[in-house]
Every structure is written in C-alpha cells, then in structure tokens.
C-alpha cells in the first residue's frame, strides 16, 4: 500500500520550509505531526522516533481492542509504522496524520479479522505480554470475590465488543477511546459521515442491549 | 426541545450527551427535556452505563521491546531515540 492510496484530501496542513532541526523536542512541542512527518521525509529520522513515541501506544491499544490479542496487535502495529516509514518519500500533508495512521491500522485490523485469524487467539485476562509485562494484574486492593466479579465484567465487555461487526467495532474504538469526531472516523473508514453515525449508533444500541444486565 | 426520539435524533443527542460532545445550549436543552421524558432519560442512563463499562476496560502496557523489534526489522535503518 502506498501513501497516495491512503491519503484523503481533508484537513490539509500547509507545507512549511523543510530542514533538519537539531532541537527535535522543540519541534515536536511547537509543530504538528505533519511537520514531523515532513522532516522524516527530509531525512530526519529522529522525528520518526518522536512520531513513534507519541502514537505507538494509541495504535497498539486500538488494535488490541480490535483483535483482542496483544502479540497480534503489536505485530500489526509494527506493520503500521513500517508502512509509514516506507511511505515517507511520498508523504504529502493532505490529511491529518492520525487519520492516515489509523486508516492503515484499521485496514490491517479489519483484514486480520476478515481472514478469520482471530479464532482462539484472544488473550486471557491474566496472560503475559511478549515483552514480559503482565496485563491486567489483579488489583490487590480488591478482595478475591471483587476480583472475580471484576474479571467477569471485563470478560462480558470484551465479548460484547467482539460480537459487533468489525467495522462497527472499529468505529466505536475510534469514537470512544481516540475521541475522534465523526468526520475523522469517516475519513479513516472511507465512508460518509452519515454512514459513520449509522455504524456507531447501531453499535451502541447493540452494546446497550448486550450489557443492560450490568447497568 | 422536541423529543429527540420523535425527531429521529435520539441516538445522536444521547451519544453526544454522554460523550460530552454536544454544544452547551443543546446539552442544557436536553437535560431540561430529560427531566420530563422518561424514555430519553432511560436511554441516556443506558448509554452512560455502556460508556462507563468501556472506560473500565483497560489496555495492556506496551511490550518493552516493541521499538527494538521495529528497528530490528531492517526497514528502518538506524536506531532512533526520541
């Protein structure tokens, strides 16, 4: 996939004079992601590191909630950032950077789900990550009974999300956790704003029904 | 405010209210409306419950070797320290 296939002509950011700035931290603070990506295009690889630092966790978490397996989510996220890096020479700031980033992530996540590779791969709640960190550790402030109840509730939430059609799932993840506006979700998914609202409202209706007993 | 459920805006107003993305005027009007409309009040409460359950779904920490694996892949030539 090349950059030109991914970009959407919305929220254009003006191109600015390019050049390597030694104070990349200041660049990151003062200028946007598109500017950093333009600097990556110009050969400043440290700016890629800044983009990675800023967006690594949101992309992994988005994909983790999509595929519900951390190893897979991290593998897909590696591919997302590789595609960003490989596309650097063609980069033009014609869309918000995160729209492009999440479009790649969503494409990979939806393909993975579509191909049925998610069978029996879901993480257990107490499973260890590939990097050794333990996920969702029991909270020792809770009693055993409270912990069991908490884990049961989490399982129900995850199952309710898993029960959504994959595109609805993606829309909810972007709306709820990335706090994206309808128009940005539409640009990520390549559909109209009204189609996004329809997807989202059906998804939330399903979730209200499936989780009503937990209210 | 006309009942959003009758004007076809029930989901949009309710989801926006819970997500706190409504403008202040619409938010206030909806709150006044809910004080007299059980259907909208119930729908809002159900959406709020879903919102809170999703809030309580934590994401795992990123693996400590994530960047190392990315840079080791070969496509990115140099190790970059942000």
Largest interface in this structure: A-B, 51 and 35 residues
Q: In what range is the share of β-strand residues of chain B?
A: under 5%
Shape-level CATH architecture of the largest domain in chain A: Orthogonal Bundle
CATH topology of the largest domain in chain A: Rna Polymerase Sigma Factor, Chain: A
Helix content of chain A: 55-70%
- Work out the helicity level of chain B: 55-70%
The helix-strand sequence of chain A is HHHHHHHHHH
Rg of chain B, alpha carbons: 22 Å
- Average pLDDT rating of chain A: 80
Shape of chain B: elongated
Give the number of DSSP strands of chain B.
Answer: 0
Supply the helix-strand structural class of chain B: mainly alpha
**Which consecutive residue ranges of chain A, at least 5 long each, have pLDDT under 50?**
1-23, 26-30, 128-135
The CATH superfamily of the largest domain in chain A is RNA polymerase sigma factor, region 2, helix turn helix motif
Biggest pleated-sheet summary of chain B: none
Largest sheet of chain A: none
Structure commentary:
- The complex is a heterodimer of chains A (215) and B (82).
- Chain A contains 10 helices and no strands.
- By secondary structure, chain A is mainly α.
- Chain A folds into 2 domains: 1-122, Orthogonal Bundle (Rna Polymerase Sigma Factor, Chain: A), CATH 1.10.1740; 141-215, Arc Repressor Mutant, subunit A, CATH 1.10.10.
- By secondary structure, chain B is mostly helical.
- Chain B is elongated.
- The termini of chain B are far apart.
- The model of chain B has no long low-confidence stretch (mean pLDDT 90).
- The interface between A and B is large, with 51 and 35 residues.
List the helices and strands and how they pair.
The complex is a heterodimer of chains A (215) and B (82).
Chain A: H1 3-6, H2 24-30, H3 33-41, H4 45-67, H5 70-86, H6 97-114, H7 144-162, H8 166-176, H9 182-189, H10 193-210
Chain B: H1 10-19, H2 24-34, H3 38-55, H4 66-72
Helix pairs in contact in B: 1-3
């Amino acid at each position: 996939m090349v950059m030109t296939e991914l970009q959407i002509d919305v929220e254009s950011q003006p191109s600015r004079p390019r050049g390597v700035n030694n104070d990349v931290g200041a660049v990151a603070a003062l200028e946007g992601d598109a500017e950093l990506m333009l600097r990556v295009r110009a050969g400043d690889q440290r700016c890629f590191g800044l983009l990675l630092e800023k967006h690594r966790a949101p992309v992994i978490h988005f994909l983790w909630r999509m595929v519900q397996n951390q190893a897979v989510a991290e593998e897909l996220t590696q591919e997302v950032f590789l595609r960003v890096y490989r596309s650097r020479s063609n980069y033009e700031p014609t869309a918000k950077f995160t729209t492009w980033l999440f479009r790649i992530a969503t494409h990979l996540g939806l393909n993975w789900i579509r191909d049925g590779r998610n069978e029996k791969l879901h993480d257990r709640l107490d499973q260890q990550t590939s990097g050794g960190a333990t996920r969702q550790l029991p909270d020792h402030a809770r009693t055993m009974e409270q912990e069991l109840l908490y884990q049961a509730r989490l399982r129900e939430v995850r199952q309710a999300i898993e029960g959504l059609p994959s595109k609805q799932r993606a829309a909810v993840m972007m709306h709820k956790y990335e706090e994206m506006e309808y128009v940005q979700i539409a640009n990520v998914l390549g559909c109209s704003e009204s189609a996004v609202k329809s997807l989202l409202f059906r998804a939330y209706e399903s979730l209200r029904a499936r989780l009503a007993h937990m209210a | 405010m006309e009942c959003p459920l009758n004007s076809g805006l029930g989901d949009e107003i309710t989801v926006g209210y819970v997500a706190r993305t409504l403008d202040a005027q619409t938010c206030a009007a909806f709150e006044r409306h809910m004080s007299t409309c059980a259907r909208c009040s119930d729908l809002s409460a159900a959406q709020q419950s879903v919102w809170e359950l999703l809030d309580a779904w934590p994401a795992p920490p990123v693996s400590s070797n994530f960047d190392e694996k990315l840079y080791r892949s070969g496509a990115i030539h140099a190790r970059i320290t942000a």
